[in-house]
Amino acid sequence: MPKWLKDAVFYEIYPQSFYDTNGDGIGDFNGIIEKLDYIRGLGCNALWINPCFDSPFKDAGYDVRDYKKVAPRYGTNTDLYRLFGEAHNRGMRVLLDLVPGHTSEEHPWFQESRKAEKNEYSNRYIWTRQAFEGMKGFPYIGGESERSGVYMLNFFKCQPALNYGFGECKEGWQLPTNHPDCVATREAVKDVMRFWLDPGCDGFRVDMADSLVKNDDENKSATCAIWRNVREMLDEEYPEAAMVSEWNNPKRALSVAGFHMDFYLNWGGNGYSTLMRDYESGEDNSFFKKDGKGDITRFLNEYLPRYNAVKDDGYYCLLTCNHDTLRPRYNLDEQELKITYAFLFTMPGVPYLYYGDEIGMRYLDVPTKEGGYQRTGSRTPMQWNGGKNAGFSICPVDTLYLPVDTAPDAPNVAAQEADENSLLNTVKALLRLRHEEEELQADAAFEVVYAESGKLPFVYRRGDIVIALNPSAETVSAPVDAGDKKICFSIGSGKVQDGKITLEPQSFLMLKS
Ligand code: NOJ
């Protein structure tokens, strides 16, 4: 396990929308480099950059046309190497996004695979034996290639599935995972990883990590075996490199497949979704909503057994948001966000902050762009200041990649830097604390002290530090023996007296001896 993860805090960058330095309306690597000091100043010491490789951008870059060349819109490979170096100079790490399950239909491997005559890439993707033989139970495309056969899709129409083989081969066209052509796919992905690790990349966020082997058993044993093999390569050749999986199955991803981190993703109705995004029924019952009917046990009932089962194997990670999810500012106001982030940044595992969430950027109702659909509203340009295009780009407004938030009260970095009570400065204070106190970091013990269904506050312990929070509009209290501990950090106010902890509306307290 790379030691640096203990104290890592990630900042996710959607590169299209972060900072444009050449005035073409879209973000670039030089822009990320220019803003590294800002990110470091925030308290984030690691980056995850969404796919930045050559692509037709039918799924915002998750349709990779060339794994080894960055998209010209962001710069050159050399610019990305420079970004690795500049990040390292500041004690920061950089994870790239690895998309192992599929490529773009324009990838040269696929162009070869679809040819009628057999070649090295014929089995790099999954094909049936002739054009009128379909794939029962799988999405597929037929009638578009000179090769007689239909091919399997992994996500959108533009993303044919790479072939890692089948757990159980039920049809003649399905190859076992140990077929040399399926092993070659795995090795090709390792080759791509080495290509970026060698010049300084620090690891990967892995897209759809569970999607490799088809007809896998219910434990995804064959897919896990591939990842273990990849992990062995990392341990041997790049022991400092880290991988985080888009899986949301920590037992499988961390304890079996060998990922260092797994995301707790927002899946409708799951524990994580009850914290900030429980509004799908029309009524908002999110725990962090001031007037919601918050119930932290809905989160804990799912989180605790998962966390306890994997805590010695890797990190189950909490995030503010990601590029697929509605921003937390969609339904939570600034004060509600302060309490939310105080919780997220004092929990175990490695926290992830999505760009712009630190100032409470809004989810915007904008038309779809590059396969984003409803996700597009969480991908708009970063709001740096109150100037033209919110300081994101000097381009004419109509050439912006996506519109910026033009609301008169749109939050921006410059204004929040100048306001000591801003969300941005609260994030900075919280992350500073996390870096100072080992007991707030990824590995330190987590224990629930007080969490009752339908009641507040929620009180927990990280090592010897006691944390209590009250997202509601009421004053609440609970019996908590805090010994000689004193309040060392607070948002809002409260007190500890006679074996009782009392919190004023919308407050957060941290206590230590
Ligand atoms: C998950 C990514 O987060 C999402 O943005 C993408 O569209 C799909 N995987 C397909 O790669």
Explained architecture:
The structure is a single chain. The chain has twelve helices and 20 strands. It has 513 residues and is an alpha/beta fold. Helix 7 packs parallel to helix 9. The radius of gyration is 24 Å and the shape is globular. The site of 1-deoxynojirimycin has 9 residues, from loops.
Small molecules (ligands, ions, cofactors) in the structure: 1-deoxynojirimycin
Enumerate the strands of the largest sheet in spatial order, edge to edge or round the barrel: 11-10-9-8-5-2-1-12
Please state the CA-atom Rg, rounded to the nearest Å: 24 Å
Poorly predicted ranges: none
Please give the share of residues in helix: 10-25%
Total count of strands: 20
Calculate the terminal CA-CA distance, rounded to whole Å.
31 Å
Assign the structural class, choosing from mainly alpha, mainly beta, alpha/beta, alpha+beta, or little secondary structure: alpha/beta
Number of helices: 12
Average pLDDT reading: 98
Strand proportion, as a percent range, falls in 15-25%
Please summarize the sheet with the most strands.
8 strands, parallel
SSE layout:
Layout: E1 10-13, H1 29-34, H2 36-42, E2 46-49, E3 53-54, E4 66-70, H3 77-89, E5 93-98, H4 108-113, E6 140-141, E7 151-152, H5 180-197, E8 203-206, H6 221-237, E9 242-245, H7 250-256, E10 261-263, H8 273-276, H9 297-310, E11 315-317, H10 334-344, E12 352-354, H11 413-417, H12 423-436, E13 446-450, E14 458-462, E15 465-470, E16 476-479, E17 486-491, E18 494-497, E19 500-503, E20 507-512
The structure holds 1-deoxynojirimycin.
